[in-house]
Amino acid sequence: MLFGLVVGVLLSCSGCVEDRYQVEMELLPDAVNRTVTVKQHALKDRVEEREVERKALAAVYSKVELDAALKASGKFSGPLPDDIGTFARVTRFESEFGELVIYLERIRGTDDWVAIRQRELEAADALTDMVVAWARATFAGKPAAGELIEFLDGPARRDLQNLGYLTSMFMRTEEGNRSQRPEQKPPFPHMSDLTARALAYLTSRKYMSLDDPNLWGVVHTTESNTKLTSVLVLNMLRSRLTTDGKGDAAALLIPAEDLALSFMAFTHDHPEVLRGWYERHNEELPNEDPEERDYEISAAFERLIFPAAGVWTNSRDDVLLTLQHGGQVLASNGNVADEDRLEWNYHIARERTDTRFPTATPFAVLVRPSPERQTALLGHLIPGEELARYCITLATLTPEQRSRWNALVTEHGKDMAALERHAEPLGLPWQTASQLIDALRTPTAP
After folding, report:
1. Cβ pair 200, 159 in contact under 8 A
2. In terms of domains, do 379 and 284 share one?
3. Residue 198 lies in a domain
4. Separation of alpha carbons 423 and 419, rounded Å
5. What whole-number distance in Å separates Cα of residue 137 and Cα of residue 123?
6. Do both 278 and 400 map to the same domain?
7. pLDDT-based confidence at 317, cuts 50/70/90?
8. Helices 2-12, 226-243: crossing angle, 10 deg rounding
9. C-alpha triplet 84, 88, 93: angle, nearest 5°
């Protein structure tokens, strides 16, 4: 039932991938090459959608090809294009010793976390309301019904909200929002971490025991079976009630299979319990398939499981981004694919206006040194962190100050004492001059 369905989401967190985007970037001395390849699901059935995407890319790229996949490429010296629902920038701070490069991209989604979390909490409440309504109707007149309903309406409601919050916060992190490459196979370490957190929560709250072999069978199963998970949750609720000394209430949840079918039918018969959530979020209650009522929960109930579990949707696009940089990475949330290439994988919102997904935000800070100039003017190489500091500080100078400073470095770069003496007449702030000179000093051994 409720927990089992949500636990199923927590343990699998899988969904339908519609499109796969591959974005390849290469840093050039004065520009960025960017290529976007779109591999659409069911390509032959989506001719109109493919044409819309082609026109959008053609508006910002100089070259667009359409064959087995849609491919667009271009060279950009300014802001990068809004191609897949993107704000993207490559910022450079240059010097004669090399440059500091900062790459940041924001892909689709929303940053209104308060609105997202409110939606999730309301979904958890709506699902709990349905369970409580079913329990009231099913166990009316039973001696322990009040005790069971009190538990469902209180501790169980709170635990469902906490499970959703756990998942929601995890999936908003850079690690949690990562997707897998199509060729990758389980186990996926980041999803294993989420599974561990969910299991730890449920065992600590006495819904299950780690020495129960049935639990591990569910964790490892790939079967999607509403009845199976509904029975699981009834057993979990019974375990918690028994541990809490509420044996009579726990006994009401037997036989689990019959009650699971009863609950599924109830969700079809009473959509009004969920109507408030759909109206508040400007969504329509989905049409039901009468043939599914005997073995599936209603579509209206099922649709709320994802937000209640902290998962935005089970339909999304995936994007793989790569950056060929030819430098030294100082900071990044990407994976090091090889010596001079970074890589990011993300789930992204299916629609650009979908506010249920978080934004994907790949970034990197790196330096691209000019070792020949460093050796020629200084007699040594500048460490990456110092080169970054030098480039940033140099960018704060006026054009005239920068020209005079470069001339001084050309003349006195191998003599720091002379550079300090001749820097004073430039009228630079003491701290600025000190930072520039310190960055150029011969590195000391650690």
Report:
1. no
2. no
3. yes
4. 6
5. 21
6. no
7. confident
8. 110
9. 160
Q: Which residues contact 10 (CB under 8 A, 6 or more apart)?
A: 163, 167, 194, 195, 198, 309
User: Is there a single domain that holds both residue 290 and residue 193?
Assistant: yes
Domain co-membership, 275 together with 400: no
**Could you say which of 264, 287, 308 is where a domain stops?**
308
The average pLDDT across 356-383 equals 90
The two tokens of residue 77 are 């010296």
Collapsing DSSP to helix, strand or coil, 370 comes out as coil
SS3 105: strand
Q: Which of 253, 283, 308 is the last residue of a domain?
A: 308
Residue 319 corresponds to which amino acid? V
The answer to whether residues 393 and 294 belong to one domain is no
Look at the chain and report how many structural domains it folds into: 2
Amino acid at residue number 423: A
Range with the poorest average pLDDT among 137-146, 244-253, 345-354:
345-354
Examine the domain organization and report whether 149 and 254 are in the same domain: yes
Alpha helix ranges (H) inside 109-188: 113-138, 145-151, 157-172
Say yes or no: 295 and 396 in one domain: no
Q: What is the DSSP letter of 444?
A: P
pLDDT digits (tens, 9 = 90+) for 27-50: 999 999 999 998 875 555 566 777
Average pLDDT over the chain reads 82
Same domain, 376 and 301: no
- The H or E element that residue 209 is part of is none
Range of the domain at 271: 111-308
Question: How would residue 225 be classed by pLDDT, with cut points 50, 70 and 90?
Answer: low
Using an 8 Å Cβ cutoff, are 408 and 426 in contact?
A: yes
